[in-house]
Amino acid sequence: MENEVLEKIKEQDAKLDAIWKSVEKMRKRSLIVFWVTVVLLILPLIGFVFVIPRFLDVYLGTFNGLL
After folding, report:
1. pTM (2 decimals)?
2. Residues 42-51: pLDDT tens digits?
3. Secondary structure in 3-state letters for 7-63
4. Higher confidence at residue 8 or residue 58?
5. Which CA distances in Å does 42 have to 35, 53, 54, 56?
């Protein structure tokens, strides 16, 4: 009886270790996806705040002589 309980505990421990490894991989992937999203989406949006006014200034400046 006691051996069966010890076997079950060992099996559960092995399964918990496998779950832990899987969860850690998912956490790392989620963190990578977060930073890739920040770099590819948020930073360009911040850049456009500076680029669009400059572009409009240059673009509308070409029409300055026509108006």
Report:
1. 0.62
2. 888 998 999 9
3. HHHHHHHHHHHHHHHHHHHHHHHHHHHHHHHHHHHHHHHHHHHHHHHHHHHHHHHHC
4. 8
5. 10, 18, 19, 21
